[in-house]
Amino acid sequence: MLHQFPMYAYIPARDLARARKFYEGTVGLTPKMEINGGVVYEFAGGTACFLYTTPNAGTSQASQAFWDVKDVDRLIGELEARGVKFEQYDMPGERSPAGAVIAGGAKAAWFKDSEGNIMALIENLQK
After folding, report:
1. What residue ranges define each of the domains in the chain, with the CATH number in brackets?
2. Would you say 122 and 68 are in contact if contact means Cβ atoms under 8 Å apart?
3. CB–CB of 34/75 below 8 Å?
4. Which bin fits 10, alpha (ψ -120 to 50), beta or left (φ > 0)?
C-alpha cells in the first residue's frame, strides 16, 4: 500500500541557521521553500527532505539519509573541496581510491553535517 507513494527524509537541526549554512553554502543545495519553521530541499526523481529544528539532532548513530549517486569517488573529491569531511568507519570491504567502502554490491561514503547527523553517498555497483 505505502509503496505507491513518495517518501521524504527529515533532517534534524539544533541550529537551523548553522545547518542551512552547511547544506546551502558547503554542500551546495538550493532551498525550494521555507515552511513550518524549516526548509525543504528537492532532489532528483521528485524526492525531497525537510530540514527542521529539534534538540534531538545528531543523536542517531546510523545514517539519517543517503543520496543514490553514480560516482561516489568523484563526489567525495568535489565535496571535500567544498569543506565536507568524510568519516572513516572500520568496516569490512575494500576501499576505493577516494576512501569509499566497497562491499555488498555498493560503494559508500559517509559524512556528518553541522548538526552531527550522519549522511551517506551510495553508489549501486549492480546496476
Report:
1. 7-124 (3.10.180.10)
2. yes
3. no
4. beta
